[in-house]
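Lab channel / #folding
Pinned by the channel admin:
"Please post every new chain as: sequence first, then the structure tokens as a reply. Keep commentary short and put observations after the output so the thread stays searchable."

First post following the new format, from NK:
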Amino acid sequence: MTLRPHWTAGLHHDGSELYVSNPLPRSGETITVRLRAPADAPVRHIFLRTAPDGEEDLKMMRRAREDGVSVWWETTLTLTMPRLNYRFKVMSGEGAYWYNALGASRANSPDGYDFKLLADFAAPAWLEAGVFYQIFPDRFYNGDPANDVPPGAWTNHHGHAVQRRAWDEPPLPWNDGGNLDFYGGDLAGIIQKLDVLRELGVTGLYLNPIFTAYSNHRYDIADYNHVDPHLGGNTALAELRRALDKAGMRLVLDVTPNHCGARHHWFLAAQADAHAPTAEYFTFHHHPDDYECWLGHRSLVKLNYHSARLRDAMYAAPDSVLRRWLLPPYRIDGWRLDVANMTARQGMQQLEHKIWRGVRRAVKADQPETYLVGENFYDGTPHLQGDELDAVMNYQGFTIPVWSWLRGRELPAEVTYGREWLDPFPLPAEALAEQWQRFRAAVPWVVTRQQFNQLGSHDTPRILSLVGGDKNLLRLGVVLLLTFPGVPCIYYGDEIGMEGLFDPDNRRPMRWDTTTWDMDLREFYRRLIALRRSAPALRRGGFQMVYAAGGLLAYQRQSPEQRLLVIACRGPEPLAADVPVRHAGLADGTPLTDVLNGTTHTVQDGRLRFDGLQAGAALILQA
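Reply from TO:
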């Protein structure tokens, strides 16, 4: 039998509009802050603790309303700083508890885990109902064979030459192809398949790099100002923009602010002349051939942001790389910033915070609703405090712990070797919930709502391969992705059952023979995307972890209009479970209906009873 949680588990605040009257306040605005507590908890008083200008202030809260299960405490708060931290001091018959974004504790904590309010934060409103679809351009669809890369068009410094691959052939390993095996996918192909994506329900595209380069992945950008002619050139991007406008879809492009390709004209000029204007863009240890590069890859030359000229060229000047593509006729809606965790960092020269603040000021001055997403496989939270990035690719805060929980089995060494961010061992639900909470707690709630969540990308194995081909577990992952706070993104082909391990296997060409598609899986994606876009609780509702043990998870998403309780069972065996829910504010007798299959469950004795939950089972219960 599941034990009843301690009353402090019923304390809840998350920064959403149920708990903060305006989660996006202006400077000087007075808002109402609320905390929910169990009605039967031994609470005597609650204080809101802030530190305006660094000095602690405790403000007594009042009991505002009760509903038989919970008591809502509230007070007002005026925003007097750009970022205002706050937590709660709960005085009870058992003593004082501190309640911050990590939860309740008798021990106090550093301010870094406080809840945070941002004044005048430029949050892209269009992200609220956003669902992205990631496309690796060369592998999606060949819409114009006339612009294909000719075999042998060039070679790289390892001696590999361009090769053309038939669409049904697997990508070549690096030793055989050197990332010069091309399939001919282009922007015209994306335009021709937009109806398929629109029918799936996605609202935006994230494209891997499309600028002129000399590899199939195009992270070795040779010209930031021109779309690769083998993708259709600048004209094709303008045409894609017009097509996306008609489809009501957004566009995020990928760019490499950390490095450029060794064939970029900036670098070629710097190599030719140590006194060239662009020489200061790079770090030469011994000119011209000993230079700083990314992780030892000589084709990817590290940019040196100590140079004011480079800062102008990349983001500060009106015609800079990050600003010119925001303008007509391209009007992109955001940037995915490659290896953001390493950008502007070179040994004793650590300029990353200065640079990202500068990028935000410059880009948001032109287009306040531009979405800035940084790639970061580790801890991106220092850049997510309201004055730098809008989001990171949320590998640690969502993706990686989900993989480890869903699998329920140890991965073989050949999959995990050399990838320290991929835990080979399965993760219990308790650890998943804790990791989710730690990474949410470190950032303001309005940033949590913008985090870029995926089940996989061009840099990771596909989710179906990670779960050993088990489509029930894949579906369970899809439920988590589309009901978790943040902006979900689907990697092309996942919705039809494509598989693949690490690069280049995960970059197989999209399958367009629909007889090979898993149509039931695709329909499941379509239904969940529609729910994610329409449900107020998923669009902007708060988040409360309700239960986590072994192979079972339960969490609540709640907005003023709607309450959803998500139940996820990894298995591996059918599971009977009592899930305590009274601490989530659910009263006995409350009926909850599964929006996926229409079955109804009723709260009894503060619990929901489930008999024989199958491995991969998921319920989305609406109160």
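NK: The mean pLDDT is 95.
TO: also worth noting, The CA atoms of residues 35 and 73 lie 5 Å apart.
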